């Protein structure tokens, strides 16, 4: 049987500098070296060897919906929600209720928000 592990997620972005600033400010991700090429694609660490790649595509049409998202987990989601509020970031629950978190049936608390390109991001407290 072949086994897999998650490596990275790549997003097409209109302005790589604006997107970098967003992810560094909101998720406090650290930029890491793009070892694949000398392109303008920039990489961020998601921890544990996982990466977020931001690929500049200024003329690409980006269409998303909330069902197409990526999720990261934190052990202190309440502190993260306070961080979003301090940044005046709009967030919602799964049902699009503004500035509200959601607790799933399995007890996991989550919030959703969008990056400058419209990509949806979920932050939850599923750290087990």
UniProtKB/TrEMBL annotation:
Q: Which organism is it from?
A: Dokdonia pacifica
- One Pfam family this sequence matches: Glyoxalase
Q: What's an example of a GO molecular-function annotation for this chain?
A: dioxygenase activity
Q: Sorted alphabetically, which PANTHER family does this protein's record hold?
A: GLYOXALASE_BLEOMYCIN RESISTANCE PROTEIN_DIOXYGENASE, LYASE, PUTATIVE-RELATED-RELATED
Its lineage reads: Bacteria, Pseudomonadati, Bacteroidota, Flavobacteriia, Flavobacteriales
Q: Gene3D superfamilies recorded for this chain? A: 2,3-Dihydroxybiphenyl 1,2-Dioxygenase, domain 1
Task: Name it.
Answer: Catechol 2,3-dioxygenase
Q: Please list the residue ranges annotated as the VOC domain.
A: 5-126
InterPro entries this protein is in? Answer: Fosfomycin_Res_Enzymes, Glyas_Bleomycin-R_OHBP_Dase, Glyas_Fos-R_dOase_dom, VOC_core
Q: Which UniProt keywords apply?
A: Dioxygenase, Oxidoreductase
């Amino acid at each position: 049987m072949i086994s897999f592990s998650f490596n990275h997620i790549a997003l097409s972005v209109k302005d790589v500098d604006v997107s970098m600033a967003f992810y560094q400010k909101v998720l406090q991700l650290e930029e890491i070296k793009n070892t694949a090429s000398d392109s303008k694609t920039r990489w961020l660490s998601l921890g544990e060897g996982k990466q977020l790649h931001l690929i500049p595509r200024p003329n690409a049409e980006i269409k998303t919906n909330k069902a197409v998202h990526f999720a990261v987990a934190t052990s202190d989601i309440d502190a993260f929600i306070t961080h979003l509020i301090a940044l005046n970031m709009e967030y919602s629950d799964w049902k699009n209720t503004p500035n509200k978190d959601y607790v799933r049936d399995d007890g996991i608390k989550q919030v959703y928000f969008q990056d400058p390109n419209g990509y949806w991001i979920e932050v939850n407290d599923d750290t087990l």
